[in-house]
Each structure stands twice: as C-alpha cells, then as structure tokens.
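Running low. Invent one:
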Amino acid sequence: MSTRVIAIGDIHGCARALAALVRAIAPGPQDTLVFLGDYIDRGPDSRDVLTQLLALRTQCQLVPLLGNHELMLLDALENPRVLWPWLEFGGDATLASYGGHLENIPLSHWRFLSECRRYYETATHFFVHANYAAELPLAEQPDYLLFWEHLHARLPGPHVSGKRAVVGHTSQKSGQVLDLGYLLCIDTYCYGGGWLTAWEVNSGQCWQADRAGQLRAG
C-alpha cells in the first residue's frame, strides 16, 4: 500500500465530521495524518474530538499541530486571568463538553495538547496552523505568524524552502479550499456551516464532511 500524507483542517469541536472523515479515509499504519490545530472551541463536542485523536494514534502516524485555540486553553490553565477571554472566544463550548469544569479534562487530553507541534514538514510540503514568513526557515518563524495571523491580514509569498505550504486558521466560508499553487488553506468553516476538509497532499484527493457527519465528494 502506498504511503499517504493527509492534512486535516480546523475541527473546532465537530466530532461527527471528524469521525466521518476518518471512516472515509480509513487510515492505516503507513499513512500520516497531519492535523492543523484548533481541535477545540466553538463546535459542539471538543471532548470527543480529542478522544478520537488519541485513538487514531493506534491506527496511523498522527502529527497534531498546535492552534491558537489550544494555546488559549493551555494559557487559561496556567493563568486564571485569561480564562474569561478564552471562554468568550469559543472556550465556553469546550468547557461545556467537559461538564463545565477544567478539572474534568483528563490528564491524557492535557498531555496531548501540550505535546502538539509548532510545524511539520516533508520533502515537498510544510504544515503550519495559520501563517508564515516566506523568507524565514520554519524553526525561526515567530509564534504570532504560526498561530494567529490570518491570510487576509498578510498573504505570504512562496516559502524560501521551495516547499508547498498547507495551512488552516483563515476560514474559507465558501466551503472551498483556497489553492494558490504554492499555498493551500484547508480551513473550510465546518463549525459555522461549512465543511471539515482532508487533503492528501501528493495526489490532491479531497474528502469533506459537514458538522452532522455527511460526506460530499470533491
């Protein structure tokens, strides 16, 4: 069986969409699934999303990236003063999925979030949550770009490495992947009525599911 590298966009608590994509992809031990961050907040079931991601570790090569929403939750754990800003930014939905208390979040979920990567790269592609500076190596990228800056605020050019970028974070409310040739944005607004997108970076095969778990071809 050939090796696949499949990127999956911002899930935002849409557990049914994630489950539907995993069933459609049917990942095996040779496959690498790169998740672009923002697993939690805004959508209905962040807890189940993290439970599914942990289970995927036994099926395939799992590469979870850190998103800005995970950063906010981890900050809220360390600093109670940022709890309310996180709750107002979609964290209330995450907290509700854990019964309303941070203390209900299992240690395995905290560990998963704390171990998420800043970026990932292959011989031909690199993966970040939000954005990048085209002239800087990945190891030197500032956190603000990697986790926070939207593409409509600053659209980068091709990266100095020559590799193709795969990003999330900037919601494509049309439900269509943004393909600039040198850059793909696969956050297709699942929690807001769009789709959760999975993209096999070598073949271009695409899977999409809505928050109810309904698939569409594309």
Summary: The longest strand covers residues 196-200. The mean pLDDT is 96. The longest helix spans residues 83-97.
